[in-house]
Amino acid sequence: MATPSSGAARHHSVIIIGGGQAGLSISWYLKQAAIDHLVLEKHEVGHAWRNERWDTFCLVTPNWQCNLPGYPYRGDDPYGFMKKDEIVAYLDGFVASFQPPVREGVSVQKLWRTGEGWHITASDGDYTADQVVVAVGGYHIPVVPRAAERLPADIVQIHSSQYVNPESLPEGEVLVVGTGQSGCQIAEDLHLAGRRVHLGVGEAPRVARTYRGKDVVEWLDKMKYYDLPVDQHPLGTGVREKTNHYVTGRDGGRDIDLRKFALEGMQLYGKFDSLDGEVVRFGAGLKGYLDEADAVSESIKDSIDKFIAAQQIEAPTEARYVPVWQPPAEEVRTLDLRARGVSAVVWCIGFRTDFSWISEPIFDGRGYPGHERGVTAAPGLYFLGLPWQYTWGSGRFSGIDRDARYLFDHITALRAQAGQPVLSQAA
Description:
CATH architecture of the largest domain: 3-Layer(bba) Sandwich
């Protein structure tokens, strides 16, 4: 890793902000082309994988989809799902394969354009660059509702990014709010450990793990769904606002069926609404949320059926899902925390973006950067690793290589316009 220096602003042809898989991927291309660059990482390389995932965390997509530049998955379980420590080892192996120039423990405080390029104010001093790649993803500020301020002080509350394992929470029942991938998997983790779980269900869709003899991800890959550009998606850029489908790779991979959890004793509610003293109130509509999640899963199966028929693929038939539990007609809409012995609340309602440190008028009314495949209207400023930046795989191990290569081509084109040579082309 690079060693800090002091004095006047240090200049690099390209500065990459963020040392996760996105920043490292564009660094790989730049190093292959012998282009001077530096990666600035606020914490340590791969920080989120190391420190913001719980102990039993694993990928929800098969290992064969992991394909960082020049470093595809080479393990002996391509159809399995890497666990947290294996993911970290995979990322560390990628770093060791090309030794990127990274400066860890450096937080960027401000980025702005100058007449000659870009200026960065960081925790260890100033930098300048001809071009900058912002590779910090889109999950920056954990979302916790203001109502959380009114929770009794003796009830532990954490965000999903802080959850470690069931033993890290005090004894007692646990309220989990949110049913995206994190919420469902954390609720399952607690449930399997024998904890009594109360789950506030939202609008997240679900997907089956397998169907007609293959992992659903493999079917969707064959159907070229993961190659679908965002501007051709039926929802357009609106898909960026959608919650990911919940499923798990745990224990070799399986569905997450909230109805099954309910049969086994998990208490399901509608969407979190408010807090009145020690009583949590939930909105109506639990049945609708469960039905819609199932409908999305079944619609994906419909598309797979059509693909199999159109391609005349021999595949086993499979019975469709039948709900194993239904909410009562009179939904339970309140939870008395004290009476039920709830000792902890885990908020699993996502993150907000924060690009306030970038002083360039490229953002929309919600703070999202305007870009085309990561290329902004500001010459020499790029984004990499945003959810649905170009395809579903953007920011993931499966699609970051394509996005990084695209930005590399733009970086080298701009260098050529400025008369700056590329000493060797990336493979």
